[in-house]
């Protein structure tokens, strides 16, 4: 099956306005303001059909072209779980997930 991994944001760093600022903890990721969730796929045996992005267990975006990415721009002052699930043209899938702490307070609450 294809192998997917979230490449940004990376675990162990503090990000501010999409930029990696500094190391904070080897097991924690903290983001201030918006961030783009990026995923890379190794699909040596079959092309990728789509990548699905999940935010706290809910599907929020489906991408059919590389680079596979989705921008998080919501108001938040807490921890969220993000996951990416990819499917190749043979129906096989794999996933990766990341827990991210957010300080994103300059957004309108919807």
Brief digest:
The protein has 110 residues and is mainly beta.
Describe this structure in words.
This protein has no helices and 10 strands. The chain has a 7-stranded mixed sheet, with no helix packed on it. With 110 residues, the protein is mainly beta. The protein is elongated.
Q: Which features would summarize this protein structure in a list?
A:
elongated; mainly beta; single chain; 7-stranded mixed sheet; 10 strands; 110 residues; 3-stranded antiparallel sheet
What oligomerization state is this entry in?
single chain
Strand content: over 45%
Structural class: mainly beta
Shape: elongated
Biggest sheet: strands, sense, closure? 7 strands, mixed
Would you tell me the overall average pLDDT? 91
User: How far apart, in Å, are the first and last alpha carbons?
Assistant: 38 Å
The helix/strand order is: EEEEEEEEEE
From the alpha-carbon coordinates, what is the Rg to the nearest angstrom?
Answer: 14 Å
Percent helix, as a range, is under 10%
Task: Itemize the secondary structure elements and their pairings.
Layout: E1 3-8, E2 13-16, E3 19-23, E4 30-32, E5 35-42, E6 48-55, E7 58-63, E8 68-72, E9 79-88, E10 93-103
Parallel strand pairs: 2-4, 4-10
Antiparallel strand pairs: 1-5, 2-3, 5-8, 6-7, 6-9, 9-10
